[in-house]
Amino acid sequence: MSGGVGGGTGQVMRARIKVTLKDGVLDPQGKAIANALGGLGFKGVEDVRQGKYIEVKLSESDPDKARSEVEQMCRQLLANMVIEDFSFELEPA
Amino acid sequence: MSGGVGGGTGQVMRARIKVTLKDGVLDPQGKAIANALGGLGFKGVEDVRQGKYIEVKLSESDPDKARSEVEQMCRQLLANMVIEDFSFELEPA
Question: B55 and A20 in contact by Cβ < 8 A?
């Protein structure tokens, strides 16, 4: 009854992806946040770095396949590998 | 020799903050990413939600104080509580 051909058998996984600027890459947005926090009275803020957080739900039951697919998504679209790094966690959704 | 007055004794903590759209809030940016992933040939992408990831380094040696400070930063500046949720982890930097 259930379609078992191919990777997707209906099980859904969720990838939680962080994309961050590499060390040394200027982050004016982070600096702006740090300044704003100082202006609001927060003392002791030493540094702020802003990145992206992306959740992708994908129907793929094989964790290894899902992992390699998410890695390719990051390299091809989600992260600019020249200036950004990425990391992610996978879990059943 | 070391200054122990006040909260900051030179120890630095890092907060890793995720700001995400609440369920039900439209996310056109996430939809655009999902479409682009489909166009690149990734099958099985069911949903994409884009949020922000922010790292804050702060000099505060007391974890409880640091926690409540980061929570206030999120409520006052980093997240728009009407449409966004936040979560964070604290660790020694």
Answer: yes
| pLDDT > 90? residue B10 | no
Query: What is the C-alpha to C-alpha distance for residues B81 and B55, in angstroms, rounded to an integer?
Result: 19
Restricting to A residues 57-76, those with a Cβ less than 8 Å away from any Cβ of B are: 57-60, 69, 72-73, 76
Q: What is the pTM for the complete model shown?
A: 0.87
Residue A5, chain B, CB below 8 Å: the answer is: no
Average pLDDT of span B60-69 = 94
∠ CA B86-A12-B45, rounded to 5°: 80
Model confidence band, residue A48 (pLDDT cutoffs 50, 70, 90): very high
Contact between chains at B77 and A18 (C-beta distance less than 8 A): no
Interface test with A, best of B20, B37, B70 (most A CBs within 10 A): B37
For every residue of A24-87, DSSP letters joined together read TS--HHHHHHHHHHHHTT---EEEEEEEEEEEEEEE---HHHHHHHHHHHIIIII--TTTEEEE
